[in-house]
Amino acid sequence: MFQELNELFESTTIKPTFEKVHIILALFIFGENLEGIGRYRLQKELLIGSGTSRSLIKKLKQRGGFITVPNGDAKSESESKRKGHILTEKGLDYLNKIKIHIPFLIEGNLEILKDIIIETNKANPYICQVKNKGNRITNGVTQRDAAIKVDGIGATCLIYNGDRLVFPLGSLSDDDKNKTEINKTIQNYFKSLQIKNTIEKISLEKNDVIIIGLGDNTKKARLAALNAALTLI
After folding, report:
1. What is the pLDDT of residues 21-41, one digit of tens each?
2. Domain 3-100: CATH architecture, name and number where available
3. N- or C-end of the chain: fewer Cβ atoms within 10 A?
4. What whole-number distance in Å separates Cα of residue 135 and Cα of residue 24?
5. What is the pLDDT of residues 155-207, one digit of tens each?
């Protein structure tokens, strides 16, 4: 579903240093800041350099048509730019298409999740949901490696079997998988999670995946969770 993003990586000179995960996360961030967000803040949120941030903004605006500078009540172009960029109708539409597959990306509660994640002494958890992709996970190693690739600590994957969340256990039988339960507190935690900036709770359906990305700060954890999720789409 990400074919539309391929042209953002095209260049006759130097290949862009941002990756697909930075584009997707940028769209999520713009979606959470509909009043506008500037390049410097985006740079900090994505943990990228100034030049990379400038290139990403340019590509999203000029090549992709996903963002624009709002006019609003600005008296000049420079004043308008200081207000930051916002999603265009095309950008918002594309973000909504992404959310069909990845409905949410929110910070997790370490105290509740510590029993099922590694490195709890320095980990910050971020959680995302991937719809109907549980059959694409074997043992979670691919997702862990994707999280580490963006400087995360790792990732923990859970699959909803229609009744409860379970660990992906590779080649074990379905019967053995069903015997491996996440404790009740954690089960209830995920079922009661509220999607960021809404009053809507998450909806789990059979074969949905929950990914807990881990990082030594929340921004790294968010990148880790999202990059792990992208391996399934």
Report:
1. 999 999 999 999 989 999 999
2. Orthogonal Bundle (1.10)
3. N
4. 23
5. 999 999 999 999 987 644 555 555 456 899 999 999 888 777 666 678 899 99
Query: What confidence category does residue 127 fall into, taking pLDDT thresholds of 50, 70 and 90?
Result: very high
Q: Report the 10 Å Cβ neighbour count for 228.
A: 32
pTM, entire model: 0.89
CATH classification of 103-230 is 3.40.630.30, yes or no?
no
User: Tokens 């509909």 belong to which residue?
Assistant: 34
Q: How does the average pLDDT of the chain come out, rounded?
A: 87
How many residues appear in the chain? Answer: 233
Q: From CA 12, how far away is CA 121, in angstroms rounded?
A: 45
DSSP string, 40-82: HHHHHHHT--HHHHHHHHHIIIIIS--EE---TT-SSHHHHHH
Furthest CA-CA distance within the chain: 66
- The identity of residue 53, as a single letter, is S
Domain residue spans of the chain: 3-100, 103-230
